[in-house]
Amino acid sequence: MTISRRRLLQVGSLGASLTLSDYLRIASANGAVDSGRSAVLVFLGGGPSHLDTFDMKPNAPAEYRGQFKPIQTAAPGVRICEHLPKLASRADQYAVIRGITHSLADHGLGTRYLMTGNLPTPVVDYPMYGSVVSKEFPAAPELPSFVSIERPVEGPGYLGAEYGPLSTGEKPRYGQPFRVRGITLDGTMTLDRYRRRRSFLKDIDTAFAGYEQLDESVRSLDRFSGQAFQIISSPKARAAFDLSHETDREVDRFGRHEFGQSMLLTTRLIEAGVRFVTVLLEGWDTHQDNFNQLGRELLPNLDQSLAAMLDRFSEQGRLDSTAVLVTGEFGRTPKINNNAGRDHWARAMCSLMAGGNVRGGQTLGETDDKAQGPEGDGFTPDDLAASFFQNIGIDPKTEYQANVGRPITLIRDGATIPGLLA
Amino acid sequence: MYASAVKPGLVFLLSLVTFGGSADAEPLPPANQRFQSAETEEVPEFQRHVVPLLGRLGCNGRNCHGSFQGRGDFRLSLFGYDFEMDHEGLVADASDSVGKRIDQSEPANSLILRKPSLEIDHEGGRRFTQNSWEYHLLHRWIKTGAKKSAPSQELLRLEVQPKEMLFSQQNQTSQLQVVAVWQNGDREDVTPLCRFRTNDDSVAVVDRNGEVTSTGEGDTHVIAFYDNGIGSVPVMRAQTSSRFVPVEIGPEMAPIDRFVVTKLNKLNITPSQQCTDSEFLRRASIDLTGTLPTSQEVREFLADTDRDKRLRKIDELLSRPAYAAWWANKLCDFTGCNPQQQAELGQELSVQWYGWIKTRLDENLPYDELVRKVVLARGRSPQQSYEEFARETSGYFRDDPSAQFSDRETMPHYWTRRSMQKPEQAAEAFAHNFLGIRLQCAQCHKHPFAAWTQNDYRNFSRFFENVTFGIRPEDRDAYQRIAKRVGMSLRGDEGSPIRNDALRKLSAGTVYPWRELYIKQRSEAEELNLLRSGTVELRRETDPRQPIMDWMRDPNNPWFAKAFVNRVWASYFQNGIVDPPDDLNPANPPTHPELLAWLSNSFVENGYDIKWLHRQIVSSDTYQRSWRPSHNNREDQKNFSRQIPRRMPAEVVYDSVKQVVAASDQAEEVRADLTRRASGHLSMRLAGTYAMRVFGKPERAVNCDCERNNHPTLLQAVFLQNDPIIEQRLENSGWVQEMKDQEAEGNLQSHRKLVSEAWLRALGRPANRSEIEQSVQFVQQAESVAAGMQDLLWSLLNTKEFLLIK
Description:
The complex is a heterodimer. Helices cover about 35% and strands about 15% of the residues of chain A. By secondary structure, chain A is an alpha/beta fold. Chain A folds into 2 domains: about 35-180 and about 240-410, Alkaline Phosphatase, subunit A, CATH 3.40.720; about 180-240, no CATH class. Chain A has an 8-stranded mixed sheet with strand order 6-5-7-1-8-11-4-12, sandwiched between helices. A two-stranded antiparallel ribbon of chain A has the order 2-3. In chain A, strands 9-10 form a two-stranded antiparallel ribbon. The radius of gyration of chain A is 22 Å and the shape is globular. By secondary structure, chain B is α+β, with helices and mostly antiparallel strands. Among the domains of chain B are: about 45-145, no CATH class; about 325-435 and about 440-560, no CATH class; about 650-695 and about 710-805, no CATH class. Chain B is about 40% helix and about 10% strand. In chain B, strand 7 (about 205) and strand 8 (about 210-215) form a beta hairpin. The longest helix of chain B is centred in the middle third of the chain and has 17 residues, at about 345-360. The two termini of chain B are about 50 Å apart. At the A-B interface, strand 6, helix 7 and helix 8 of A face helix 15, strand 15, helix 25, helix 26 and helix 27 of B. Chain A: This is DUF1501 domain-containing protein.
C-alpha cells in the first residue's frame, strides 16, 4: 500500500493543468509503460443461460436444448442464438469462450469470483478488475479512472478505497436529463456558484497553513479536493457524461432502452479517456419463464447495444485499444425445470471477449453434448481473468503488497487462454 | 461441566527472547568457523544446520524452490520447517539429466553443490563458492550419509546480543550474535545460519551476516530468524539537536506519559505542546462518542475555568449513551459483525448483534465477561425446551417484542455466521478477533514471522469441529411440527434458514422454527495443543471453547488483553503500539514494550474495566498533545510525540454533516437521538450503503482491521463537494430554513453571530477575526443571507479541518 500511495502522489504532483496527452507523454518518459488501453466490462447479472445464448446444443433432447434455434454467423463454424442476429453478423469481432467452469452457484460468491479472478476467501479481499486498471493506468486528472454505471460490481479490495469506482447512482434513461452522482451539477447548483464556494473554501481552509506537506492525511485531502473540483467543473468530464451531445441516429443505434443508453454512455466515457467502465444488464436469473424473458427483451437489447458499441469503437479505430469482456457469474441448468426456467449452474458457463488483441471469429473451449460441463478441463474464472488482464496490458502475475502481510499475485491460479489473443 | 485444564508448557517461552545472565556453558562456535576447512570431522545436522543454511541462502524462498510449484523440478517447504518434505526433496532423483541432486558416492557431483556454486548453470545464480564454509558444510552432510535429523527437536529460544543498539552517527555498525538454545541444553552460536531483516531501512540495515549499519535517525528493530525461533533487537539513533532539553519525569507523571517520554528522551525528541481546549473537546468527543460537540457545549467548555475540566469532560463523555453506541461499532469491527455473512435474516441479526454489544458497553461489563458471553454462547439455556427456544427467538421480532435480544445472556450470532462453519475458518477468525494474531499463513506453510507451524494451525482448528449450528437430533420432531405450521420447506436434517419473507409473520407473532447453536459430541476424546501454550484434553462432551476461554482469562495469557488494549490505543492515535494492531507477532515488536505490558497488565488488574482503559489513554498528556510539531518532531511517526491528524470514521462523517445543518432547536436532539445516528441504531442498517462504502466503513468480510479505511480518497472529495446527499442536507437544512423565515420576517440575527455559530458547529472552535470578516463579506455577496450561509456551510464541510481529527 505504501508503494501505491507514493506512486499516486507522484502522479498527483504532476500538477493540475496537464492534458491527457501531456500526462501520457510524461508517464512514458518516466518509463511507466502505458499501454493506452481502456476496458469495458458488461456484466450480465443473474447468470445468463449459456445454452440459450452462445453455447447452444441443438442436438440435445428437447428438455435441454430449449426452444431457441442457432443461426450461422459471419465466422465459419460459429453458431449462436437466433435472437442475436446483429452479433451474429459481427462474429469476426469477438471470441466466444465456452466451457468455463467453477463451483460457486451463489450470486454473491459467483460474482466475486468472476469479477476478481480469485476464489473468494475470508482471508483476502481481492480487487475488482477496474480497480487494478485504475491503479495501473490512472486517467488524466480531470477524469475519473474507473466508472461504474448505476452501481459498482465488486470493490477495490486490498488495493484500498482510492481505487474504487465512481458510480453514477442511476442508469441514463432516454429522454430524461442524466444526473451522475457527484459529477453533475444539479439544477440549483450552477458552475458559477460552485466556483464561488470553492474559492471561498480556499480562503478559509487555512488551519494547516505552513504544514500542508507534513502529514499524509493533510496532503491527500488537498490533492483529492483539487482533483474532485477539476472533475466536477471540467467541461470535458461533464461532456463525457452528457448524452445530449449524441445524435438521434446514435441514440437509436444503441437503443432507447436503459441498457442501450448505458452502453452509449460507456462508449462516450471510454472515448473521453476513462480507463475502465462497468455496465450492468440484469435479469438473467431466469428460474421461471426463461425463454420469454430472454427472447423478448434481454437478448434483443444485448444484441443491439453490444453490436452498436463494437461498431462505434471500430469506426473510430478504438477497438484495438479497448478490451471488452461480457460475462455473468455462472451458467444455468441444462435441463429445463417445471416452470420453463433454468436454475443456477456453475459447472458450465460462457463469456465473450473483444477488442485489444483478441482474435475474433472463433470459439475457445467446448462443453459436452448437453452443455453440462466442459470437455476436458475447461477454463476457470481465473483463466478468464488472466486473459482479460493480459489483453488490457497488465501482467496477471503482477504482485501487490497487500495489507495482509504477504505479497499477493494478482491472478494466482489462472493462465491466459491459449489461442485467444494475437 | 467441562473437564479439562490447560497444562502449562515450556513452549510459552518460545515467543520470548531472553538475554544473557545465564551461567550456561560457552556456546558452540559458529558454523562458518567450524566448517571453514574442508578437513573438519564434524557431522552437520539436517534440522540445525542444513535447513537453516538453505533458508539463509534463499533456497526455500517464495520465488525459488519454496514456491508451491517448486523451481526446476525441485521444491522445498516455504520458509522451511517441513523436514520430512525437505529431506525427501533433496534425496529424490532429479529429473535433470546432468546428475543427481545428492550423490553420496561422489558428493562433489551433487547438484546441490554444483548448481549453487555455478559449476553448472543455475537460474538462481551463485549462492556460494567451492571453498566456502557453506560448501564444506553441505559436502560433509552428504558425505556422512545425508541423514535426516532425529524427530522434532525443540528449539527453546534464541538469545540475541546486544540487547539494544544505540547509534550516534551515520554508517556506524554493530554486530549481532545469535545463540540457539535447544531443549536438551545444547547451545550453539547460529549467527551465520540466521536470516536477518530490518523493520525500517531508513533507520538501519542489516546484512546477511548480522552486521547492522545505522542509516538514519529514529528507531526500529532488526529481526533474526532461525529454525522456529525469532529474536528482535531495538535499534535507535537519537536526533542531533542542539536545542533538545529532556523532559523531566516527575513522580506526578501518569504511567503512560512516563513510558512515552522516557523513550522520547532517549531519542532526543521534544514532544509537542498540549492541544488547545477546543481541540481537546472535539478530539475527545469524536474518539469517545463518535460525535461532534454542540456549539453550546464548546462555549461552555471554553468558559469553564476549572483546572480539572478535561478530566470532568472525559467522565461525562464516558457516561453518555453515545459512548456505548460508538464503541459498539468498534467492537463489531473487532468481532466481524457482517449482514452478508449471517446465516439468515442478515440485516436483522446484525442489528441484534450491534445492539447486544451496545447494551453491554452501556453496563460497562468487563471485557473478559463480554467476550465470555460471545465465546461460550449457545442457542438456548439448559432448562429451555426447543419449543420455548423457538418462541423466545421469534419473540424478538414481534411488533410488541415479548423478549429483547439485547437482554440475552449470550450472543450466539458470532458463531452462526456462514463464515464460521468450517473449523479452519473459525480458528483463523477467532485468533484474529480475540488474540490479534494472524494464523492463516500456517495453513499452507510455516509462518514466516511467527512460531506457528502447520501442526499448530491444524490442532487449533480442531477445537472448533463440534461447534454446530442446526437442529439437535432429539429436537427434529419438534422442529418439523413448527416448520409445518408455517409452511417451510426443509432441507436435510440440519434445518433451513428463515427467509426474509417470514419477517411480516414474525412481527405479527407467528413462531418460526429456528436453528440453534449447540455443541455436538466429539467422536472421541482427544488431546490438542492450544497454540503452543500447553495441551488440552477434550472429552467427548466438553465444550471445546471453555478451555480456550479459561486460557484467555489467565492473567499470563500473552495475547488476550494485549490485543484489546492495543486495538483501543490504535483508535486514539495514527498507530497501535504494535502496528498493524491486529498483527501481534515476535517479528513485529511493539514500539513501547513496557507501555504495552503495563497497559495490559493494569487492564487485567482493574478487572478488564473498559472505561478505565479509555480514561487512562484520553487523560494522558500523550493523547492530549497538539498536532503542531515541536522544533524537532516533524519526522516522528511512531513515538506519539504529537497527535497526527486522522480522518473521521465513516459513521462520524455522516452524523456530523447532519449535526452541522440541524435547526437550532433540533441540534441537541440530532446529537443525542441515537436511533437516527449512523454510529447508533442505524449502524448496521446503513452498512454497505454508498456513503458508508465511500468513507471506508468496513464490510467485516475478512480478518483484517485494515478493512476500516480512514484514508482520504478522491471519491470522498467528490461526495463532500457534490453528492446529492450533501446537497439535500444543505437544501433541507433546518437551520438555513430558520434563516430564510427570519429573513422574511426581518428579524434575522447578525451575520457575525451566524458565522460564529457555523464555525462552532462544524469546527468546534470560535472563528478568528479575519475568518469572521471574510465570511461576513462572502455571505453579504450572495443573493440572500440564507443562500450565502448555505454556501458557507458547504465550504466548512469541505475544509480539511472539518474532516480531520486534529
